[in-house]
From TrEMBL:
Keywords: NAD. It comes from Candidatus Methanoperedens nitratireducens. The lineage of its organism: Archaea, Methanobacteriati, Methanobacteriota, Stenosarchaea group, Methanomicrobia. InterPro entries: Nitroreductase (IPR029479), Nitroreductase-like (IPR000415), Nitroreductase/BluB (IPR050627). It comes from the Archaea. Pfam families: Nitroreductase (PF00881). GO terms for biological process: 2,4,6-trinitrotoluene catabolic process. This is Nitroreductase.
Length: 195
């Protein structure tokens, strides 16, 4: 195998991916979504159990309904907190026009089997593959952790056809980026070398 240490496209892809929160009003073709999920399923998993499944939501009215359900739940979770993050997040959540999924055209829920104690790790690795595969195909993404609260609603989990023995691990929005977000500050690694 030829290894290019200087122009390594995989590393460049990982370093240039950004969380995208502003999308074009343009659908993502189904074959691209399938390609992205296909990259997800090649992630490593404990004992190769691959405890993931995927729910792809493209219906704008349903996406809005999910956001509308999540917002008051997230507000309640943040209430009473006085730290800067909570205050600014609360401000955004109070905005009637704010959609927690940023009006993205696609939401992929990576759901994991509850009975598997490593589901969260495995589905997170799968989600990592998904966001990096998306970026490599020119598709923006953002993991919207707040989206997990939708599973508190039996009505919504039924609507989303999430089996009762599965939980949402990674809600990931996808779409064509309107612009390239700047790179947020990335801290230098703290490394202890033991030699
Ligand atoms: C577990 C997890 C949960 C996240 N939840 C949210 C979220 O609810 N809303 C949001 O806008 N971004 C969310 N993000 C995106 C982070 O804010 C983002 O990754 C971080 O600011 C670094 O920016 P970058 O992804 O462009 O490197 C989440 C990311 C992770 C890994």
């Amino acid at each position: 195998m030829n290894v290019d240490y200087n122009e390594n496209s995989v590393i460049t892809n990982k370093k240039t991916r950004r969380s995208v929160r502003d999308y074009l009003n343009k659908p993502v073709p189904e074959e691209i979504i399938n390609k992205i999920i296909d990259a997800g399923r090649y992630a490593p998993s404990g004992f190769n159990l691959q405890p993931w499944r995927f729910v792809v939501v493209e219906n704008p009215a349903i996406l809005e309904r999910l956001s509308d359900y999540a917002k008051p739940v997230l507000m309640k979770n943040l209430s009473g907190r006085t730290d800067a993050f909570a205050i600014s997040h609360l401000e955004r959540l109070e905005d009637r026009n704010y959609n927690i999924f940023y009006n993205a055209p696609v939401l992929i829920l990576v759901i994991g089997r509850k009975s598997n104690p490593r589901s969260d790790y495995d589905c997170t690795l799968c989600a990592g593959n998904i966001i990096h595969a998306a970026h490599s195909l020119g598709i923006g993404s953002c993991w919207v952790g707040g989206g997990t609260v939708i599973q508190q609603s039996e009505e919504l989990t039924a609507l989303l056809q999430i089996p009762v023995n599965y939980k949402i691990v990674a809600p990931i929005i996808l779409g064509y980026p309107r612009s390239a977000p700047p790179t947020p500050k990335k801290r230098e690694p703290v490394i202890s070398w033991v030699r």
